[in-house]
């Protein structure tokens, strides 16, 4: 029997832990975790994401602040807002929603967030801590952190002797995912579009993580029998069977055929997706615990 991971259920259990940790911190120290989310411009998809992040932060018992800035915001104004949030003792996490409008440079903004408030895990200090295996000192990017929760719940904390293959090498996902798997003692290959015999490399994986942005690229004969397959892709493809002009969401893995070969697999939607917001809440509560000099919960 193949196990299909229910991302919504795992995310809900992470949120439960966040809620109790947040309540306990406030009771014991008076510190209420605070998350500030910043959005610039009018992109409807980004507004939908940001609203659900702000809503979830409230549900977790956090101080939840949203700054909505107009499309024509200048670099200096955004930089000043980040400075204000860096200095605000009630704010433990800062997230600037990406992508920013084209006239703004995102990297200087992201790198100006205090590393201890960088709940997106995008600051070079946090990337560096992860790369050096310092998992208890930094903040890890939310989507790889969420995918890793699935890996731990399937294989435990120690991946000694297991081969892991991550397809994709982005700073946002592939690189941190590979670093997390390596820190858990897996033997890790980071594959990408220039990899020779990608199918053959993937067939060697006990844990296969796909994050390439190509709809249903990973086929059944790429999967080692009994492997764990984690699909990080979110792709919209035409679905004429649903009506003219309709689309549906698929991952980077051809789910139906791969589910017959894998022993554990994540669906799209409903797999890694719901974990991203949950891990953002987890990072915020971790940041608040550290600021209060307490040991944060583990996720
Ligand atoms: N836009 C899409 N996903 C993300 C994310 O995880 N963090 C930020 N800051 N922006 C995003």
TrEMBL record:
GO terms for molecular function: methenyltetrahydrofolate cyclohydrolase activity; methylenetetrahydrofolate dehydrogenase (NADP+) activity. Its EC number is 1.5.1.5, 3.5.4.9. Pathway: One-carbon metabolism; tetrahydrofolate interconversion. The keyword NAD does not apply. Residues 141-290 form the Tetrahydrofolate dehydrogenase/cyclohydrolase NAD(P)-binding domain. The keyword Cell division does not apply. Keywords: Amino-acid biosynthesis, Histidine biosynthesis, Hydrolase, Methionine biosynthesis, Multifunctional enzyme, NADP, One-carbon metabolism, Oxidoreductase, Purine biosynthesis. NADP(+) binds at residues 168-170, 234. GO terms for biological process: L-histidine biosynthetic process; methionine biosynthetic process; purine nucleotide biosynthetic process; tetrahydrofolate interconversion. GO terms for cellular component: cytosol. It comes from the Bacteria. Gene3D superfamilies: Leucine Dehydrogenase, chain A, domain 1, NAD(P)-binding Rossmann-like Domain. It catalyses: (6R)-5,10-methenyltetrahydrofolate + H2O = (6R)-10-formyltetrahydrofolate + H(+); (6R)-5,10-methylene-5,6,7,8-tetrahydrofolate + NADP(+) = (6R)-5,10-methenyltetrahydrofolate + NADPH. InterPro entries: Aminoacid_DH-like_N_sf (IPR046346), NAD(P)-bd_dom_sf (IPR036291), THF_DH/CycHdrlase (IPR000672), THF_DH/CycHdrlase_cat_dom (IPR020630), THF_DH/CycHdrlase_CS (IPR020867), THF_DH/CycHdrlase_NAD-bd_dom (IPR020631). It holds the Pfam family THF_DHG_CYH. Catalyzes the oxidation of 5,10-methylenetetrahydrofolate to 5,10-methenyltetrahydrofolate and then the hydrolysis of 5,10-methenyltetrahydrofolate to 10-formyltetrahydrofolate. NCBIfam families: PRK14186.1, PRK14188.1. This is Bifunctional protein FolD.
């Amino acid at each position: 029997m193949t196990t299909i991971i229910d991302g919504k259920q795992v995310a809900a259990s992470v949120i439960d832990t966040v809620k109790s940790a947040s309540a306990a911190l406030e009771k014991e120290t008076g510190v209420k975790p605070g998350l500030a989310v910043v959005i610039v411009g009018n992109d409807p998809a980004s507004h939908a994401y940001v609203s659900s992040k702000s809503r979830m932060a409230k549900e977790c018992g956090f101080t939840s602040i949203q700054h909505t800035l107009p499309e024509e915001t200048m670099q200096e104004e955004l930089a000043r807002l980040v400075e204000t949030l860096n200095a605000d003792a009630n704010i433990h996490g800062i997230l600037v929603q990406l992508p920013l409008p084209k006239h703004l440079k995102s990297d200087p903004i992201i790198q100006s967030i205090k590393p201890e408030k960088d709940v997106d895990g995008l600051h070079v200090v946090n990337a560096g801590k992860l790369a050096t295996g310092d998992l208890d000192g930094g903040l890890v990017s939310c989507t790889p952190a969420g995918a890793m929760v699935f890996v731990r719940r399937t294989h435990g904390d120690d991946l000694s002797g297991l081969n892991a293959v991550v397809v994709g090498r982005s700073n946002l996902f592939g690189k941190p995912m590979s670093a997390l798997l390596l820190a858990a003692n897996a033997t890790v290959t980071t594959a990408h579009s220039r990899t020779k015999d990608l199918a053959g490399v993937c067939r060697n994986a006990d844990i296969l993580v796909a994050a390439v942005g190509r709809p249903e690229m990973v086929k059944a004969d790429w999967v080692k029998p009994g492997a764990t397959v984690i699909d990080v892709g979110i792709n919209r493809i035409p679905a004429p069977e649903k009506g003219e002009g309709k689309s549906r969401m698929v991952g980077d893995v051809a789910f139906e055929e791969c589910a017959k070969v894998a022993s554990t697999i994540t669906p799209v939607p409903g797999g890694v997706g719901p974990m991203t917001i949950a891990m953002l809440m987890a990072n915020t509560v971790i940041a608040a615990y550290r600021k209060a000099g307490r040991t944060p919960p583990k996720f």
